[in-house]
Amino acid sequence: MFTAPSAPPHTHPAPGATNTRQRPGPCPCGPGASAVLLLLALLVALMPSGAAAAEGPRLSLDRGEAGKGSVVVVKGEGWRPRALLTLLVCGQNMVGGTNDCVNAEGRTVTTEGDGAFRRELVVSEPPKPCPCVVHVATVMGEVEVVDVPLVVAGHPVAPLPDGARIGVLDARLEGSGGVLTWFGAPPARRLVLTVGNLGSGAAKDPVFRVGTARGLLAPSWEERRWRGTIPAGQRARVVFDVELAAGAHGPYEVSLKYGDKVLVTEPWDVARPWGVTLFWVLLGLVVPAGLFRIGMVVVDRLRPRRAAVVETAALPWFTPDAMPRLPD
Q: Alpha carbon of 263 to those of 167, 195, 215, 227, 318: distances in Å?
C-alpha cells in the first residue's frame, strides 16, 4: 500500500542561530525590459493631458447665482498657454454680440503655462435681460469662446424673440492677392462671419445675400445658402467666397444681407494691378523699336546699290633720256 510522504516537521532555529533561508532576489530583467516599462509609464502619464486637450477650454463658477455688486470667481482649464482672455457678463445669452454685455466692467486675464486661470469678476446688470452668461473669449490668435450660465439676482428675465432672427457678432475679410492678381486676375477674399440666432426658433439652411459695390455705387447681390442649422440662442461660423471681376481695383465694399436687413458691410481696398500697367509700358516701348528696326532693314534692302570706283594714283614715268645721270 502506497503511503504519501509526510512533510518534515517545522523546526525553529535555535537561539543565537542565524536564519539561512534565501529570499527571492531582484527580477533578472535586462535593459530592454526597463526601457519598455519606462515607455509605458510615460504613456500613462501623458494620457490624461491628451484627453483634457481634446475636450477643449472649460469654465466654471464658484456659484451659479449672484447679485449686482457681488464677486464671482471664474476658473478655466484647457485654454492655450499664455493666452490673453476677456471676461464679460452678458444678457440674452449674448446672441446679440458684445452689445448685450457690460463692457465697462469687463476684466482680462492671462492663462498659466498649463492653460488654467482664476479670476474674480464683479457682477453688473447687463443692458439686456437675462438669461445671462459669463462670456470668456481669446483676444488674439485662434478664436476660442466659452459661455457659462449665470443668474443675476434682481435682473429682469425675458424670453428670446419668437422665430429665427440672425445677427452678426463678428465679421472680417480673409485672404490676400497673389502674383496673378498683380497681373489682372480676379481678386478673391473669404467673408468669415460669426452669426447668432437672436430668436427662439431654429434657423435651418438660412439664405443670405452677398453684395459687392465699388465706391458709392449700389451693390450687386448674389444669393448664398448656408447649409446647417443654427439653434435658438446659439452661434455659428459662416464663410462665403467673394470674387470681383478681372482687373478690378479701387475702394470696394462687401455687404451681407439677411431678409431685407443689411447685417454687415466690410471695406475692401483692392490694389491696382501694376503688372498690367508694366506690360503695356513695355509693349509701348518694344513694339515701336521693333517696327523701326524692321523698317530700317526694308529700306536697306530696297536702296539701289552704286558701282564701286577704284582710283589708282599715277606713278611717275621715267624714259631713258629723262633718267638722271649718275656721276662718273
A: 7, 10, 19, 19, 116
